[in-house]
Amino acid sequence: MKIYSETGDHIEVPYSSLSGISLENLNLHRAKLERHDLSHSSLINSNLRGAFLYGANLKMSNLTSTNLITADLRESILENANLELCKAYSTLFENANLLNANLEGADVNGASFLNATLKGTNMNCINIESSNLVGALYDDYTIWPENFDPKNHGCIKV
Q: Which of 10, 41, 55, 74 is the most exposed place for a label (fewest CB within 10 A)?
C-alpha cells in the first residue's frame, strides 16, 4: 500500500490496511490520509507535520512524541488515543472526538479544539491557554492544567 504526500514523496508500506500496524519513526510530512482507518496503529515519533487527516479514524492509536504541527485532524476520531508529548502547534482538532484521549505534556500552542469532544480527556497540555477551545465539550473526568479554567476559554461542561 502507498501513502501519498503533497510533497510528492510516497511511502510504500507492506500492508493492505493501515489499521493496527506500526508506522513509527516515519516521515509522513503532508501525507494524504483523509478518512483513512488508522485505528489501533502506532505512529510513535513520526513526522505528520501538515498531514491531511480530516475525518480519519485514529481510535486507540499511539501518537506519542509525534510531530502534528499544522496537521488537519478536523472531524477525526481520536477516542482513547495517546498523544502524549506530541507537538501540535496550530493543529486543527475542530469537531474531533478526543473522548478519553491522553494529551499529557503535548504542546498545543495555537491549536484549535473548536467544538471538539474532550470528555474524559487528559488536557494537561503545554500552551493550552493559546488554544481555541470555544464550544469544546468536557466533563468531570477531563483533566486540565492546574489553575486553568476551561469555562473562561469557552468550553462547555456536560
A: 10
